[in-house]
Amino acid sequence: INLAVLEGREGRLEAALERLSPFAEQAEARNQAGNLLARAAELSRLGSGPEGAAGSAEPAAETAAEARDALLERALREYRAATRLDPANPSYEVNRGAVLFELERYSEAEE
User: Is 98 exposed, middle or buried (0-12, 13-18, 19+ CB in 10 A)?
Assistant: First the structure.
């Protein structure tokens, strides 16, 4: 997980996520993947997104807002997976709520 954090800090999102992939059944790794994706979304909003933030398969004409939302949706999936793996950890639900708030899905965030 620490190497993934370092990759993320260097702006190498996809490399960071690849480092976490062997730990897909660990809640903390899924949460960290969500954190990396949410941070990339924030950086893309600020105009300084990391390499690979939108994913190489995304159309070139995709808007910055769509790219940001796609990253947030990916983060949301990771936080949901973390919650499924460790439902007793409230920080995963807090992170999920924060992403839903960023996506302006307020009624879901309140749940």
Answer: middle
